[in-house]
Amino acid sequence: MFYGVDNTFLSRALDAGIYEPYVSPLLAKIPAEFQFDPQNRALPVDYGDICVNYDKAYFAAYNLPVPTSLEDLIKPEYNGLLVVENPATSSPGLAFLLATVAHFGETSYLDYWRSLRANGVVVVDGWETAYYTNFSASSGHGPQPLVVTYGSSPAAEVIYASSPLTDAPTASILGPDTCFRQIEFVGILKGTRHLDLAQKFVDFMLSQQFQEDIPLQMFMYPVNTDASLPQEFTQYAQTAPQPATLDPTVIAANRDQWIADWTAAVLH
To answer: Distance between CA atoms of 87 and 134, rounded to whole angstroms?
Structure first.
């Protein structure tokens, strides 16, 4: 089996023909919006939104309104306040790049990024550096109060706090297209000698028991509608009412070029 390919790379796995189709009876519990492969070679397991999160204390201390849209991030009052990950080396970075493509379109997203660059956007290689070194609300107490991270990060801040918290110190910006919805899939590898066991394990991953264990283990959301969420998620984690999405085939056809063009526009 192979678990973890997401919708930004799904078409590559499907085009390579590595998966054995399997119609799990548990698919009946999973909304159609998560089922991207009509041949059921890759089955959805979990999802989450990658958003721009903000440090509540920073914006309160400086009496600065929290940005509510992608367009807000290029305003002068937010100069130098946003850290993002390089889409060539980071999956959250790629997700945020895709959100800008979905929102502004293929002909205009680079103009937006040039405006972000002019407004002092900080680019780092990976999520850990962005969140734990650059982000002002994390343990690094860095210089940027805006960071590209997961919509579940506020819940993680509460759960892993060294001292008990009554509220999350961070929150997500949830305007239209500000978050990109990531969906992770599992598939049975072609040629397996243990097809029956593989099918049983897929069923287990889609079962209520496994699905209810996902939030606090992986900080993603279950796709099975029978699964209930832990209190920390219902209270502090956030999903976007209108996330950015792109068809996996469109992503597959353009991903490498978008990254190359982004690199030329933002890093050079």
So the answer is: 17
Reduced to 3 states (helix: H, G, I; strand: E, B; else coil), residue 229 is: coil
Q: Give the contacts of 181 (CB within 8 A, at least 6 positions apart).
A: 7, 47, 48, 49, 240, 243, 244, 245
Q: Please state the pTM of the whole predicted model.
A: 0.91
233 is a domain residue: no
Strands (E), 108-203: 122-124, 146-150, 170-172, 180-189
Residue-wise pLDDT tens digits, 123-163: 999 999 999 999 999 766 899 999 999 999 999 999 998 88
Same domain, 73 and 124: yes
Residues 6+ apart with CB under 8 A from 140: 131, 132, 133, 134
Same domain for 57 and 167? yes
Of 229, 213, 235, the closest CA to residue 154 belongs to 235
Does the residue 137 lie in any domain? yes
Provide the pairing of β-strand 43-55 with 170-172: antiparallel
